[in-house]
Amino acid sequence: MVTGRQGSGQNLKGSRDHKYSLQEVASGVYLITDTNYHNVFTTTGDGVVLFDAPTPLVGFIEPAIREVTDDPVTHLVYTHVHNDHIGGASQFVTPDTKIYAGAGTAEFLEARQDPARPVPTHIFAEDTTLTIGGRTFEIAPDRFHTVTGDLLINMPREKVVVAIDTLGPDWMPILDFSITADMYGYMKIFDRILGLDFDVLVGGHDEHVARRSDVELTRGYVHDVYQTVKRVHSELDTSWIYAEERRDEQRLALELFSSVWVDAGKEIAERWKGSPVQGAELWAESHCRAMFLYVNWTD
Ligand SMILES: [Zn+2]
């Protein structure tokens, strides 16, 4: 077990030293974290499989891998398109590297031609079981975070699930539920994750991996936001404002809409104050605004 090793990174201006630690979260599955971002790699006996290459961790990934193996990175998996999670990818790509992604991610990167995020060489269009060396990966294209789609990855033997930007064990999701582009898909992913037999959930952020209880707790929070916004929203009546002059109509719409997420946000922040998951007081209003957009137009 490798735990708590400190590597040195560049200093962040005006901030603490930027360092990483390496944890073996399951046999041969390693987590690199700077306490905010994290990502995983695994040895396979046939090269290293690296899941994402977050930009903030890019200087740490190679030294971290070298702490446990001399094998090259042979496979790189993009969980989703966001550049904070895969913006360091080009550093790990050789002409022989296999790069995997969901179809929507691949389509975007093909069109975008961003040198930092090389175009995938292999696409997951449907649920796929991938065997690399001695390891099995169950890859499920889903959509719970980005409009271009996200991968839900299960390593059944190791009982590790990778679902990036779903939740963390220590902090609430940030802005708009980790800027989810699909609230319906986001709310559903918790049940899909809990339907898997896992011990470790890699969510992409925080110092630690999440456990089943963390998924249940965050699911409870998300559903509380949904029910609260739904209740406050049910008292909203905007029908009368359309008889107003256009400028007043727009001003009133803004006032009425925002009253829903402000009132619901206050209630949520109060109810989740002191929760083991920090940050409700910071992000509840944003969560309620994102939920309002879903409830008012889609639900
Ligand atoms: Zn993301």
Tell me what the structure shows.
There is one protein chain. The protein is α/β, with parallel strands linked by helices and 299 residues long. The chain folds into 2 domains: 7-210, 4-Layer Sandwich (Metallo-beta-lactamase, Chain A), CATH 3.60.15.30; 223-297, no CATH class. The chain is 36% helix and 23% strand. It is built from 8 helices and 13 strands. It has helices at 58-66, 83-86, 103-112, 175-179, 183-194, 212-234, 246-271, 280-297, and strands at 7-11, 17-26, 29-33, 38-43, 48-51, 73-77, 98-102, 122-124, 128-132, 135-142, 150-155, 160-162, 200-202. It has an 8-stranded mixed β-sheet. The protein has a 5-stranded mixed β-sheet with strand order 9-10-11-12-13. Strand 11 (150-155) and strand 12 (160-162) form a beta hairpin. Helix 7 (246-271) crosses helix 8. The longest helix has 26 residues, at 246-271. The N and C termini lie far apart (46 Å). Bound molecules: zinc ion (ZN). The site of zinc ion has 5 residues, from loops.
